[in-house]
Amino acid sequence: MTITRRLALAAGFLAAAALPAFAQGDYPSKPITMIVPFAAGGPTDTIARIVGENMSKTLGQQIVVENVAGAGGTTGATRGKDAANDGYTIMMGHMGTHAASVALYPNLAYDPTTDFAPVGLAAGTPVLILARKDFPAETLAEFIEVAKKEGAALNNANAGVGSVSHVSCLFFNALTGAKPTEIPYKGTGPALNDLIAGQVDYLCDQIVNAAPQIQAGTIKAYAIGIPERSPALPDVPTSAEAGLPDWQVQAWNAIFAPAGTDPAIVAKLSAALDTALDDETVQKRLLELGSVIPEKNLRTSDGLGAHVKSEIAKWSPIIKESGVTVGN
Ligand code: MLT
């Protein structure tokens, strides 16, 4: 083969490799992996599976959930950032991985505002203050009294530093002066199981995980951190009604692709997310679990990008004030 022919072939290969997968065929042409940065069975996993199932139908390819738990969700988020930006690996991030972690981890391996291509918000998930069902307090005021008195004797479960459950209870503990012993898990799926079993005393968890157990009476709920009661749990008082109005915690889940993903692929994913969130069955499942269906403008790349920035601005001062960081 002549040198000219070899060079021409090499140039052809390089050009083909540089083309995004989208330009090489109809995206998606194979299954898409969705990283869930927490244990299976928890709130992030639940939202990912409900929304992902419908998106799979629209996209004509299966979205396969992969649970990559650890370090309060930052292990999975780092994997999501480092994945090839060809649209075949995306992730379900949340208020912890893409907002609270910024102030908690001084050496966080990613910048949520620049290392990801936002796809759209998948769900709003109000947070509740929960205790084991035989905890000796019937109201939030009584619970705060016991928590302050018992201090480190109480076990406060969470999904690791920077998770929603960690940050929400950090906020609660800072407001009330509670100083519990923290028990980290790989997600609130397993943490909730231990709360039901009475192995830990309290947990601040997202409604999608907690609602079925509250309805079944296997755990106690003292308050929900949103301004109005949730239609899914009409008997649970708001934090304001329960006497702690400053404890406002509306968490959220959102889909991200790695930075540099072809904008046409991101747009296709956003459109599939939008279709999923308009679907009657998806809406019914999300609403039964107490989720808030995101507004149309938040189901877009720009909408989610702006939301992430405002959430980092909201949580950073609260976390800094608490004095908690992780030495990574
Ligand atoms: C989970 O899916 O386990 C959670 O979203 C954990 C959390 O952030 O508290």
Structure overview:
The protein has 328 residues and is an alpha/beta fold. The chain folds into two domains: 165 residues, Bordetella uptake gene, domain 1 (D-Maltodextrin-Binding Protein, domain 2); 98 residues, Periplasmic binding protein-like II (D-Maltodextrin-Binding Protein, domain 2). The chain contains eleven helices and nine strands. Strands 1, 2, 3, 4, 5, 6, 7, 8 and 9 form a nine-stranded mixed beta sheet that branches. Helix 2 crosses helix 9 and helix 4 packs parallel to helix 11. The radius of gyration is 21 Å and the shape is globular. The relative contact order is 0.19. The structure holds D-malate. D-malate (MLT) binds next to helix 2, helix 6 and helix 7.
What does this entry show, briefly?
With 328 residues, this protein is α/β, with parallel strands linked by helices. The protein has helices at residues 3-18, 43-59, 74-82, 96-104, 140-150, 164-176, 188-196, 207-216, 263-278, 280-288, 301-322, and strands at residues 32-36, 63-67, 89-94, 116-132, 155-158, 181-184, 202-206, 219-224, 250-258. It has 2 domains: 31-124 and 252-322, Bordetella uptake gene, domain 1 (D-Maltodextrin-Binding Protein, domain 2); 127-224, 3-Layer(aba) Sandwich (D-Maltodextrin-Binding Protein, domain 2).
